[in-house]
């Protein structure tokens, strides 16, 4: 098994000292890398900027990137050779239209930034997915959770989508715990309780392995 995982946030530069980013810590993606490696998989972890050290498991290769464009390039380089893709990164949907070469100076009372859409890594790779490949996406929703998550599953050609519940105070960004529901194309819904991200990762890996085994049965 060869696994591609995207993890962490992306930083989209505004000028030499500023960027647009988000609060993703990368913990979920890193935990998934460890969990897949523990099952014997060879893992490429494409990580945005995080405070986490590179995993030390020799089966995991960590590729560090900053922007969505860099993450897309790094993921594309290994996607074809991987049979499992996991898109755990919180990719910035937009980036500043222009990156100033010098530090932007303070001037008027308001400042308007123009943003342009970033590449959707999961969507673009989803178009290239072969029958034997298995793609896992994440969705974080605040309303119509399951319907929105299933929309992403279809659009991005996922075989499994991990819906992050924000209803629980201990789940999501900046927490060591997470509460997820797994959604699959055939309508199967599997809800898990609040647990450490390391255990959530093991649940996700177990689900992927079970689906791959079924395929080969
Ligand atoms: N994703 C990605 N590249 C992007 C945006 C999202 O690969 N530019 C992936 C995420 O890693 C995740 C899935 O797509 O696995 C869903 O991300 P999400 O932000 O929930 O979906 P969006 O399509 O960006 O929709 P929105 O933010 O409007 O809900
Ligand atoms: Ca998004």
From TrEMBL:
Q: Name one Pfam family in it.
A: DFP
Q: Gene3D superfamilies from the entry?
A: CoaB-like
The protein's GO terms of the molecular function aspect are: catalytic activity
Highest taxon listed in the record's lineage: Bacteria
Question: What SUPFAM superfamilies does the annotation carry?
Answer: CoaB-like
**Where does the DNA/pantothenate metabolism flavoprotein C-terminal domain lie?**
2-209
GO-annotated biological processes: coenzyme A biosynthetic process
List the InterPro entries hit by this protein, alphabetically. Answer: CoaB-like_sf, DNA/pantothenate-metab_flavo_C
- The name under which this protein is listed is Phosphopantothenoylcysteine decarboxylase
Lineage, highest ranks first:
Bacteria, Pseudomonadati, Bacteroidota, Cytophagia, Cytophagales
């Amino acid at each position: 098994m060869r696994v591609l995982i995207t993890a962490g946030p992306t930083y989209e530069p505004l000028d030499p000292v500023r960027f647009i980013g988000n609060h993703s810590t990368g913990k979920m993606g890193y935990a998934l890398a460890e969990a897949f490696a523990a099952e014997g998989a060879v893992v490429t972890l494409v990580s945005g900027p995080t405070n986490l050290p590179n995993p030390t498991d020799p089966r995991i290769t960590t590729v560090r990137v900053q922007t969505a464009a860099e993450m897309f390039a790094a993921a594309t380089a290994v996607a074809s050779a991987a049979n499992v893709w996991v898109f755990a990164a919180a990719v910035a949907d937009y980036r500043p239209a222009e990156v100033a070469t010098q530090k932007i100076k303070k001037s008027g009372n308001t400042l308007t930034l123009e943003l342009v859409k970033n590449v959707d890594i999961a969507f673009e790779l989803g178009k290239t997915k072969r029958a034997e490949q298995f793609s896992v996406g994440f969705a974080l929703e605040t309303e119509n959770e399951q319907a929105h998550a299933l929309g992403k599953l279809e659009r991005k050609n996922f075989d499994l989508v991990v819906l992050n519940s924000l209803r629980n105070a201990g789940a999501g960004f900046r927490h060591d715990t997470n509460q997820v529901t797994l959604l699959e194309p055939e309508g199967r819904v599997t809800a898990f309780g609040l647990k450490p991200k390391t255990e959530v990762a093991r649940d996700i890996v177990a689900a992927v392995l079970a689906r791959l085994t079924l395929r080969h049965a």
